[in-house]
Amino acid sequence: MENDRETGLSAAARFGRELARHRRERGLTQRSLAAHIGCSPSLVGHIETGSRNPQLDLAEACDRFFALPEPEYFTRLCRRIHYSPTGPGWFLRWREEIEPSAVTLRTWDPLLVPGLLQTKAYARAVFLGHFSTPESEIQEQVAARMERQRIFSRENPPELYALMDEWVLKRPIGGKSVMYEQFRHLANAARNRRIMIQIVPYDTACTDGLTSSFVIAELAEAPTTVSIESAGRGEVSADNEVVSLILDRYDKLRTEAYRVGESLAMIEEAAEQWHPRT
């Protein structure tokens, strides 16, 4: 999928261009396409010119009708319209192209619950930490984070191996109720057979992961790629040397981590400690 920034198109214009292209390739008029996807011919025309934004149900209807090789092609284009991406370019590439295609994800975070496992309230509290961020942008960032989590509801969700520093269980983000809800959610996620969460002891001698958080994505038809973030800066790389370095750090951290069952017990205990009644 082309990058909208590279083509100079808005997300709505990109959707319209792609809809028109695939319609013409099928030899359809706007009227005949409208009959297939359940809308008016005039709406198809407005969407193709970029003067109207498609809704998610229409995008899903387009995916069902065209049945393109790339899953949820029009749905993903539609989400770009309604959840305008904000943030650095390196992360946009990760979020839109790499993470949704991952077969396996391995994460490490020394400071926070990983974004893919955050609740809406916890994510909002994280973004509120940037005092100069406008409310509209915070809402946008939270919506985008929740949208990323939809990869676990797809037909073949990725396996997630998440390592977290023990201090994450103790670091107050948003208050007791937010923390309680977050760790109940985390405990439920840990019972998913495709999600393995392990806590790394705060007194571990391994310091390799303290300088940055990272995610490793294994892809079915592309090289393993890593996303690395440190002090608000980051990069996405498939360079063999960089990937090998991050894999080595992940393996060292995992050897220090508590087992999955032990980690779940720690998360459940943390939830009770953060219960608002205590």
In short:
The protein is built from twelve helices and six strands.
Fold topology:
Layout lengths: L3 H4 L3 H15 L4 H8 L3 H9 L6 H11 L6 H10 L6 H10 L3 E8 L10 H9 L6 H14 L10 E7 L10 H15 L4 E6 L12 E7 L5 E6 L2 E5 L2 H17 L3 H14 L5
Parallel strand pairs: 1-2, 2-3
Antiparallel strand pairs: 1-4, 4-5, 5-6
Describe the structure.
The chain contains twelve helices and six strands. It is an alpha/beta fold and 278 residues long. It folds into two domains: 4-82, 434 Repressor (Amino-terminal Domain) (Orthogonal Bundle); 89-118 and 150-273, Endonuclease, Chain A. Strand 2, helix 10 (176-190) and strand 3 (195-200) form a beta-alpha-beta unit. The model is unreliable at 1-8 (pLDDT under 50).
Descriptors:
278 residues, 6-stranded mixed sheet, elongated, Endonuclease, Chain A, single chain, disordered N terminus, 6 strands, 434 Repressor (Amino-terminal Domain), 2 domains, 14% strand, alpha/beta
Elements, N to C (H/E): HHHHHHHEHHEHEEEEHH
Largest sheet: 6 strands, mixed
Q: Roughly how many Å apart are the termini?
A: 50 Å
Helical residue percent? 40-55%
- Structure annotation, total helices: 12
CATH homologous superfamily identity of the largest domain: Endonuclease Chain A
Rg, nearest Å:
21 Å
SS class: alpha/beta
Q: What amount of the residues lies in strands?
A: 5-15%
